[in-house]
Specification:
heterodimer; A: alpha+beta; Jelly Rolls; two-stranded antiparallel sheet; B: mainly beta; Immunoglobulin-like; 26-stranded antiparallel beta barrel; nine-stranded mixed β-sheet; globular
Chain lengths: ~250, ~950
């Protein structure tokens, strides 16, 4: 009896120590990794907000704003953001999207990035360098290397992945089903029973997706209006205001 | 000079001066163009041409005609006018192409036309540039100097950006302590901007403001072991915010974006003063899968005596399924038929099942009708014969003539269709047919007295009653004007086949076509009655067939070519047989090869080699009124191979061509042409190294005829006027011999240079051509062309300057004609008030010196025998002329904001000629308003 208690106590302490050590290590490493950004905001159209992992409040995005491990990015009904990673991969985030960025930069040629898309739609253009890029949704994980594809997550968590070029390995989390998608393939994982189905995209769908993001990209260039104020003394002052058009 | 020499000296001189209008020889026109050392394969390759001596607003339109690897037909790309230059963007992204050949065509509102190079069509001498693959910059984005690693995030090296999208970003990797993060500096265009940038140990970002168009540089430095070290440096170009490219990048795919422009101009050209007003607009946009473009130009120079000066059009696209262009459009079908010529009409296409089934129809007019303007009928007399005593036998006539510039043109209508199976990615087979016809009824044509009475009897008002009665009683006395404009009819059909395999590494393309052309359909279809008038007899069934196919092509005695032979016997009866010709490997076939054309090419891209084989045949009578840039009576083959060395930085191209003319034996002799060419281009990735291109071309032409004349020898033999051979004891004049060898060397280098802290883009081109004629004493030609250009961006001042110098020394006709042309162009552009105001000025000077020695004919002491005459240099007949042209141009552009801009420019031209002729100065002043949305 006494030996059993001893074993249990040691086990508890060991497990606790391991967990504590892991927490400390992850915090330390997170701190270390948090010094180095994973990505920057390349272009955006308001409203786009960022919340750093060690902060409580949301901040408005700015051009060239850095994004670190575990940061969250949110776009509202009119918002759009193009996020550039340190390996030059590009992620375009459509309106009404929420995603968390995770990963680490190993060296100039190697990054490991994972984007957790909670809701919304993102388009990824991943470079062919030695990078691992994963997109995780509530129901699926897509792993890519040297490709461009689109991921759409609806409110109920079901996921649609459309591949524009290259190949994507799609895994349905719950059922464990796995498939490799290539150009013009569309994989869908539904939220109820985690079934994975594959269909083909038409050229019209393909062009439609490209046009959508092209329109969003063009909207990131602000317009300028100049207002001139004058007083009775004849002095005048000009104020420039930049604004974004909402369609 | 008693006879015209083989090469017309006058036309040679004018060609050297790059003029095409003899009447305006004193209004110096020159076109400056810096040929690129190489061109990248891209769907937006851009070329610039500077046209001096004519106002850009006088340009009706300008096109770049281009083809790849010496193909049969040219394609056309429409040029725009941007910032005082003619700019054209075209697609060079052809996977299998090694070289591109191009020339510029400029059409003025008064129907004048200029080409650059001037002899591009007459001698088939376009500009030739090597094509290279776009540099793969993905490996340039990261680097290391051994201490610090980096990755460039934005902008990418050589990436074209619009100013408002500029963001410089670089990420760094280094061991802590190996480099001091506080010492990191960023220099933009040589200026330290670290204070304005966001610099952290791992990331540098900087947003530059007020970027000028042109090249910019970024450099990152840091301190290591107390020493400043340059980590990396790269360059990128910024687009002119007013350029079409920049607007396309900005507008993306919006519902509607475009611009409207209004202009007013006052000009005095060669003593004539005019006020001209013009407005242009272009709008484009998209909504989902629907895209559209509208464009238009309206001018006060619209004139019913010219082709349309107003231009407008609309394009609509519904995804990849349906497209429609209407208005003034530039449709393309098979290159043997229609390749981008202007049509006023409609072009529509339907693509079904992912482009597996395609149909296209084009209908419209290529020329509008311009009526004939006749002057009143006048009484005259014509000489029928001369009597022995020298007196003339005359007959009284009544003549009708055209007014000055009163000759009209027929409306030329076009109807074409194309049906194709396959989308071309792996396979496509296409069938094309086209009819181009001049509508005879579109203008008033008076060919006899009955036409005169029916159409314009008032032209007889200049005659008195007696003369009118005489003419009415004797209508044969009426003399109609001899117009060179006759209504023509042209029908073509063509097929094409494209097969691709091995992921596009193998491509086979074949085009076949046949055409029928009637040069005068005014007499209608050939029927039995007309045949009898021509002393022919045609069976009823043939006459019926000709009548039934008249909706396709009107066949009569004016066909440009009929594969028929006519034999008249002793009784005067004429019989008709089908002409037999050689077709492929078979002799004496009834296939009308003179009317046919084909081009076949095979491209193989394996083992780093891009190999191409081509065979073409274009019969001498293959003519299409819809594509006049097609060379006829030529058949031959060509091989070329291109491979790359040193990590795709060196491109080596080698080629061999052999072709001949006289395909159906209709000429006195057959000329064989052989060309061997080689080209080496160095296209390094690093901007610190120059781009180099060196080429060599050897061409020989020989028609197998020797220079013969039993009466002459030595140098006089080579100057003989007639080629005479003694055959069976008889002196027979034979064909003129041709045997010449041309050697051409080209060299081009371009580099960015930093000099006195200034960034300079420097280009130097040199071309040497020597032609040696072995059978004619005055056939040698040599030419040296040097051109140098430098564009300087002044980092400390918002200014850009350019200097261009061109020197052309030519010696033709073995020293009989010497032309030296020196052109200097200096320009500067300065930006003020945060780039809102741009002031620019250009000064161009062109000096021409032309020296000629005349040719005279020696009768060799025998006035009765013409066979022994020969040419000799007439040193007593020498001319020399000097002409200097100065053109000063200046202007300003004020951008109120991104929507509104006002542009002003003025130019002044002064021509000085040493012949004592006074030439009035030209001046142009114009104001333009632009609204962009």
């Amino acid at each position: 009896m006494k030996s059993n208690k001893f074993i249990v106590a040691v086990s508890i302490f060991a497990i606790g120590g391991i967990l504590l050590g892991d927490m400390i290590a992850s915090h330390v490493f997170a701190s270390l990794n948090n010094d180095r950004p994973l990505a920057i905001i390349r272009r955006y159209k308001p409203d786009v907000s960022i919340k750093h992992s060690n902060e409580e409040s949301w901040k408005d995005a700015q051009m060239a704003a850095p994004l670190f491990d575990s940061d969250t990015l949110r776009t509202d009904a009119n918002g759009y953001a193009a996020v550039q990673f340190m390996d030059n991969s590009l992620v375009k985030v459509k309106p009404n999207s929420l995603l968390i960025i995770r990963g680490e930069v190993l060296d100039k040629n190697s990054t490991a990035s994972r984007i957790a898309v909670e809701v919304g739609e993102v388009f990824m253009n991943v470079t062919k360098r030695q990078s691992k890029f994963e997109v995780q949704t509530p129901t699926a994980v897509a792993t890519v290397k040297g490709t461009s594809y689109n991921t759409e997550v609806s409110g109920d968590g079901s996921t649609i992945v459309s591949v524009l070029s290259g190949s994507v390995e799609l895994l349905a989390i719950m059922s464990g089903q796995k498939v490799t998608l290539t150009r013009k393939d569309r994989g869908k994982v539904d939220s109820k029973n985690s079934n994975l189905s594959v269909s083909k995209m038409s050229d019209k769908d393909l062009n439609g997706k490209e046009n959508e993001y092209s329109n969003l990209d063009s909207g990131t260039k602000p317009k300028t209006i100049r207002l001139r104020f004058g007083n009775n003394a004849g002095q005048s002052r000009q104020v420039e205001i930049q604004y974004f058009e909402n369609e | 000079m008693k006879e015209v020499s083989r090469i017309s000296l006058v036309m040679f001189v004018l060609n050297m001066l790059l003029l095409t209008n003899v009447s305006e020889v004193f209004a110096q026109v020159s076109i400056n163009h810096t040929q690129p050392t190489v061109l990248e394969k891209t769907n937006q390759a851009t070329l610039e041409f500077e046209i001096l001596g004519i106002n850009l607003q006088d340009i009706q339109d300008a096109f770049l005609n281009y083809r790849f690897d010496g193909g049969i037909a040219y394609q056309s790309a429409k040029a725009d006018i941007e910032r005082g230059k003619v700019v054209v963007t075209f697609d060079t992204n052809v996977e299998t192409a090694n070289q591109v050949q191009y020339y510029l065509v400029v059409n003025l509102v008064n129907d004048e036309k200029f080409l650059y190079p001037a002899n591009a069509e007459s001698d088939d001498s376009p500009i030739n540039v090597t094509l290279v693959d776009p540099k793969d910059v993905s490996n340039d984005l990261s680097g290391s100097d051994g201490v610090v690693d980096f990755t460039i995030l934005s902008p990418l090296p050589n990436e074209e950006i619009v100013p408002e999208d500029a963001l410089v970003a670089l990420t760094l990797f280094y061991n802590e302590g190996s480099a001091s993060s506080d010492s990191i500096k960023i220099l933009f265009d040589g200026v330290d901007v670290t204070g304005s940038a966001d610099v952290t140990p791992y990331l540098i970002t900087y947003v530059p403001q007020n970027l000028l168009p042109g090249n910019h540089s970024v450099e990152v430095t840091y301190t290591y072991n107390g020493k400043s070290t340059s980590l990396t440096k790269w360059d990128f170009p910024t687009l002119d915010p007013n350029s079409k490219k920049a607007q396309a990048k900005r507008s993306g795919k919006k519902y509607a974006a475009g611009q409207v422009e209004l202009s007013a101009r006052n000009q005095s050209i060669f003593g004539t003063t005019d006020d001209i007003y013009k407005s242009t607009f272009r709008v484009g946009g998209s909504a989902g899968w629907f895209k559209y473009n509208l464009n238009g130009m309206f001018t006060s120079q619209e004139n019913s005596r010219l082709q349309p000066q107003h231009r407008y059009g609309i394009e609509m696209y519904a995804g990849n399924i349906f497209e429609l262009q209407a208005g003034h459009i530039f449709p393309k079908m098979n290159p043997l038929m229609l390749a981008g010529n202007r049509v006023y009409g409609v072009n529509t296409a339907l693509h079904l099942f992912d482009r597996l089934i395609n149909a296209q129809v084009t209908i419209g007019e290529m020329r509008r009708s311009v009526s004939n303007l006749y002057s009143n009928v006048r009484d005259t007399s014509i000489v029928l014969a001369t009597n022995l005593d020298g007196s003339a036998q005359t007959e009284d006539k009544y003549a009708l003539n055209f007014q000055n510039q009163g000759t009209g043109t027929f409306r030329r209508q076009v109807l074409g269709g194309r049906f194709a199976l396959g989308n071309g990615d792996v396979f496509q087979m296409g069938f094309n047919a086209m009819k181009v016809v001049d509508r005879e009824s579109s203008i008033n044509v008076i060919e006899n007295y009955d036409d005169l009475i029916a159409l314009q009897p008032e032209l007889l008002n200049s005659l008195d009653a007696t003369q009118k009665a005489d003419l009415a009683a004797n209508p044969d006395k009426f003399l109609a004007p001899n117009s060179s404009t006759k209504p023509r009819d042209n029908f073509m059909f063509a097929g094409d086949l494209t097969i691709r395999g091995f992921s596009g590494k193998m491509a086979l393309r074949s085009d076949y076509g046949m055409s029928l052309l009637n040069n005068d359909i005014s007499s209608g279809v050939l029927n039995k009655a007309r045949a009898e008038e021509l002393n022919l007899s045609i069976p009823d069934d043939i006459a019926n067939v000709l009548d039934e196919i008249s909706w396709l092509i009107i066949v009569n005695e004016n066909m440009s070519y009929l594969p028929l032979s006519f034999t008249t016997d002793d009784n005067g009866d004429t019989s008709v047989d089908v002409l037999k010709t050689r077709f492929l490997f078979f002799n004496d076939t009834p296939v009308p090869t003179a009317l046919m054309a084909s081009q076949n090419s095979l491209n193989l891209n394996f083992l780093g080699n891009n190999f191409q084989a081509r065979y073409q045949w274009v019969g001498p009578e293959y003519q299409t009124l819809a594509n006049t840039a097609l060379r006829r009576d030529i058949a031959g083959y060509a091989f070329s191979d291109r491979f790359r060395l040193l990590s795709n930085t060196i491109y080596v191209t080698m080629g061999f061509e052999r072709f001949q003319d006289n395909l159906i034996g209709s000429k006195e002799s057959t000329t064989q042409t052989q060309i061997i060419n080689g080209d080496v281009s160095w296209y390094p990735v690093s901007k610190n190294l120059p781009r180099l291109s060196v080429g060599y071309r050897l061409q020989t032409r020989d028609n197998g005829i020797k220079r013969l004349n039993p009466y002459l020898n030595g140098d006089n033999l080579l100057a003989a006027i007639r080629n005479v051979q003694v055959i069976d004891g008889n002196e027979t004049i034979i064909a003129t011999p041709r045997n010449d060898v041309s050697n051409q060397i080209t060299f081009s280098i371009s580099k960015e240079l930093e000099f006195l802290g200034l960034r300079n883009d420097f280009t130097l081109n040199y071309m040497n051509l020597v032609t040696t004629d072995d059978v004619y004493a005055f056939g040698d030609f040599s030419s040296d062309v040097y051109s140098f250009g430098i564009i300087t961006n002044w980092a400390i001042l918002p200014m850009r300057t350019n200097v261009n110098v061109t020197l052309n020394n030519s010696n033709g006709s073995s020293g009989l004609a010497k032309v030296d042309i020196l052109g200097v162009n200096l320009g500067a552009s300065y930006f003020l008030f945060n780039e809102k105001l741009n002031v620019f000025a250009d000064f161009a000077l062109t000096t021409n010196t032309i020296k000629t020695i005349g040719l005279d004919v020696s009768d060799n002491g025998t006035t009765e025998n013409l066979l022994d005459d020969y040419y000799f240099r007439d040193l007593a007949n020498q001319t020399s002329s000097d002409q200097n042209t100065y053109i000063l141009r200046g202007g300003a552009t004020y951008n109120f904001n991104e929507h509104h801009a006002l542009l002003f420019d003025a130019s002044f031209t002064n021509v000085q000629v040493n012949t004592g002729i006074s030439v009035p100065n030209d001046r142009v002043v114009q104001l333009r308003y632009v609204y962009r949305f």
